[in-house]
Amino acid sequence: MLQVTDQDLTSFNTLGLRSHARAFVRCESADQAPALSDLADHYQNVFVLGGGSNVVLAPELDCLVIKVETSGVRLLSETDDAWIVEAQAGERWHDFVEYCITQGWNGLENLALIPGTVGAAPVQNIGAYGVELDQRFHGLTAWDMRDRRLVDMSVQDCGFSYRNSVFKQAEPGRWLILQVRFRLPKAWRPVLDYPDLQRHAVLQAAGDRVTARQIFDAVCEIRQSKLPDPAVLGNAGSFFKNPVVSAAVYERLRKEHPDLVAYRQPDGSFKLAAGWMIDRAGWKGRHMGAAGVHERQALVLINGGGANANDIAALADMIRADILARFGVQLEQEPVTVA
Ligand code: EPU
Predict the structure, then answer these.
(1) Which of ligand 1's atoms lies nearest the C-alpha of 128?
(2) Distance linking the first and last C-alpha atoms of the chain
(3) Ligand 1 center to residue 65 CA distance, Å?
């Protein structure tokens, strides 16, 4: 039986923004999906909440908020060359990654310690340290809230790109992601291209004998040294995407800023390190009211205590305007704003 209540969401979003939902329901089993569709008919919009680690929640939400709390991980199948592992959407992403490593199902180690749930991971196509979710993704099962049916979606159906997917872009609230499947090749190859990993002493010393566990540990250590723990300091990870610009724009910027940090993309464009630009513009460690810029990672906005979505939006707008004026580059927000 589904129970709709009102709910304070302050502790359900990692930014810790003060937010209140008028209608809140927990989804504890995938079987509840049809009943959730019936319920959703009474509301104008639906918002599916996972770990709340990539959202900016308005102070008052009128939509139906569905919090996914399902659990379970299983080895779905094993072929000669891969393991197919399936996790329920409500599983904590990091715990799932660690469990896979413990089982010897390697391949997700670069994505260690990313906050949030398994079901939220495909929404923004999470990525870190040289690996993006779509590279390990096998498929998912979602409940289509509009057409009231279960759908299996392949990597193509999900329309993944850099921190984006059909779930984030088109018709938010339509898909209730229930299970996500990963294809983890048995012929494991470490991904160590990211500068922070190349510099890491343990990984350097291990050389060709490096293990997935060592990479997992290194990624945890690097993230802990740079990124604030949401349990201690409210944040939603990177607040802006790293903008992708043409080679011509990159060349112009590099002439003006020889130490600009940028990564060449396979199609010849360049991904600029937004954190470097925001840092260079002098924002690191600055506060505006209750919102601030983290002192070690300028791409991370923080809640200094008691902030709401308007405080964060005001600071983000000022940063965006400043980066546009200084570098001629438009920053795009990464977390989803829920109003
Ligand atoms: N930098 C600065 N000053 C800063 C921050 C960064 O100079 O204040 C420079 C760094 O020195 C480095 C470059 O900018 O040369 C890139 O910084 P970093 O390696 O910390 O990564 P990022 O580009 O800021 C991205 C992802 C992170 C992911 C890391 C590691 C995006 C929007 N962010 O951050 O993802 O963990 O790379 O792969 O793509 C997230 O999406 O929430 C997230 C944390």
Answers:
(1) 38
(2) 28
(3) 31
Q: Given 3.40.50.300, 3.30.70.2970, 3.90.78.10, 3.40.50.720, which CATH number is that of 234-338? A: 3.90.78.10
- As for ligand 1, residues whose beta carbon falls within 6 Å of it are 128-129, 194, 196, 226, 237-238, 241-242, 261, 273, 275-276, 279, 284, 297-299, 334
Domains of the chain by residue range = 5-68, 73-225, 234-338
Region of residue 94 (left: phi > 0; alpha: psi -120 to 50; beta: else): alpha
Q: Ligand 1 centroid to 37 CA: how many Å? A: 38
334 Cα nearest atom in ligand 1 = 32
Catalytic residue, candidates 18, 26, 136, 163: 163
Q: What is the pLDDT of residues 30-50, one digit of tens each?
A: 999 999 999 999 999 999 999
Q: How far away, in angstroms, is 181 Cα from ligand 1 center?
A: 27
CB environment 279-302: b (16+ within 10 A), e (fewer): bbbebbebebebbbbbeebbbbbb
Q: Which CATH class is domain 73-225?
A: alpha beta
User: Which of ligand 1's atoms lies nearest the C-alpha of 296?
Assistant: 8
Q: Quick: pLDDT tens for 266-325.
A: 999 999 999 999 999 999 999 999 999 999 999 999 999 999 999 999 999 999 999 999
Question: HSE of 225 in the Cβ direction (CA atoms, 13 Å)?
Answer: 8
CATH class entry, domain 5-68:
alpha beta
Ligand 1, from 215, 276, 319: best to mutate by most atoms within 8 Å of Cβ? 276
Residue 109 to residue 81: CA distance in whole angstroms: 19
